[in-house]
């Protein structure tokens, strides 16, 4: 049994309004769910994705209003990739990022793919990766009503980069416990550091990769606004999730057990370097409680929070996500 690829990535923001403005207005992603952090209902949890939030397209943010800055380091998910259709799309993005005064680098080739590295206004480390030569997990479907033409739009999540001091324990979990296989290596951008190792699962390709970077020159990351909280990998259904729970227990990896998130079911655990992994089911998805035409326009609450809606809304700063 194999994991199917990246399910979602969850990061931290200190400002939901500014975050919404950037990821919808500049990056052109669709807000498919405006809800709350189910472990702390006093703050927002925002989901940006393709047209309906298909698995493998969701970049999500927990709002922590007083979050401090991030001090980058090891034991971290250090970069999140976003897929675009081809190299032509990267040319479009190079111009768009310049026009919107977004901090970014030039187009370069990394692991035989063209990419652009950029940062959001809070320093979130992102890459746009071209699917020009990609084969593997299918991309998502762009939202036609966004500000970015569909032929250039973001179509899903690409590889997640993990940065560690000692790769061996992480490699062991990826390959011996989870279903990843080493498929490639490429030179580190930091002189004197080992090659970055590429791991792939399921059908492979940009939507199913983890890139493991070794850094012996950095302290442990101190997360804050602009850091990544966890990466989630795709599981087909609840029965398979139970299989993975048993597998983790057999490997003596402490885990959360199955957790109900309403839009999917989850399982959480930390690998030995302290990075938080989630396994999440593909369904039931984000259209289970909202009309696909109006996803993300209202505060959506799972049924088990609905009786507390008035108190929950009273604690949240208003966030207008209504679209024309």
From TrEMBL:
Domain of life according to the entry: Bacteria
Any Pfam family from its record, for instance, is Glyoxalase
According to the UniProt entry, its GO molecular function terms are: dioxygenase activity
Family matches, as InterPro entries: Extradiol_RC_dioxygenase (IPR052537), Glyas_Bleomycin-R_OHBP_Dase (IPR029068), Glyas_Fos-R_dOase_dom (IPR004360), VOC_core (IPR037523)
Q: Which UniProt keywords apply?
A: Dioxygenase, Oxidoreductase
Q: Can you give the residue ranges of the VOC domain?
A: 5-131, 156-282
- Please identify the protein, giving its name as recorded: Ring-cleaving dioxygenase
Q: Which organism is it from?
A: Oceanobacillus kapialis
Q: What is the lineage of its organism?
A: Bacteria, Bacillati, Bacillota, Bacilli, Bacillales
């Amino acid at each position: 049994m194999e994991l199917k690829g990246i399910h979602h990535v969850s990061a931290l923001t200190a400002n939901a309004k500014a975050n919404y403005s950037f990821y919808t207005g500049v990056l052109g992603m669709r807000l498919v769910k405006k809800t709350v952090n189910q472990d702390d209902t006093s703050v927002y949890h925002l989901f940006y994705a393709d047209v309906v939030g298909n698995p493998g397209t969701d970049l999500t943010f927990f709002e922590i209003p007083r979050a401090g800055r991030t001090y980058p380091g090891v034991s971290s998910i250090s970069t999140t990739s976003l897929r675009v259709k081809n190299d032509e799309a990267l040319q479009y993005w190079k111009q768009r990022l310049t026009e919107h005064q977004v901090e970014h680098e030039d187009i370069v080739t990394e692991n035989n793919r063209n990419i652009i590295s950029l940062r959001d206004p809070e320093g979130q480390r992102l890459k746009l990766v071209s699917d020009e030569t990609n084969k593997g997990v299918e991309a998502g479907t762009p939202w036609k009503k966004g500000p970015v033409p569909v032929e250039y739009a973001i179509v899903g999540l690409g590889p997640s980069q993990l940065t560690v001091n000692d790769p061996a324990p992480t490699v062991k979990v990826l390959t011996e416990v989870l279903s990843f296989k080493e498929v490639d290596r490429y030179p580190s951008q930091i002189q004197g550091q080992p090659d970055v190792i590429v791991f792939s699962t399921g059908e492979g390709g940009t939507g199913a990769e983890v890139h493991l970077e070794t850094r012996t020159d950095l302290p442990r990351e101190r997360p804050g606004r602009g850091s990544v909280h966890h990466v989630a990998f795709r599981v087909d259904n609840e029965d398979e999730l139970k299989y993975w729970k048993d597998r983790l227990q057999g490997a003596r990896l402490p885990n959360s057990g199955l957790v109900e998130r309403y839009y999917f079911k989850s399982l959480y655990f930390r690998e030995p370097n302290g990075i938080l992994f989630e396994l999440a089911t593909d369904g039931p998805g984000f259209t289970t409680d909202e009309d696909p035409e109006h996803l993300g326009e209202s505060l959506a609450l799972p049924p088990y929070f609905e009786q507390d809606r008035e108190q929950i809304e009273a604690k949240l700063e208003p966030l207008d996500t209504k679209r024309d």
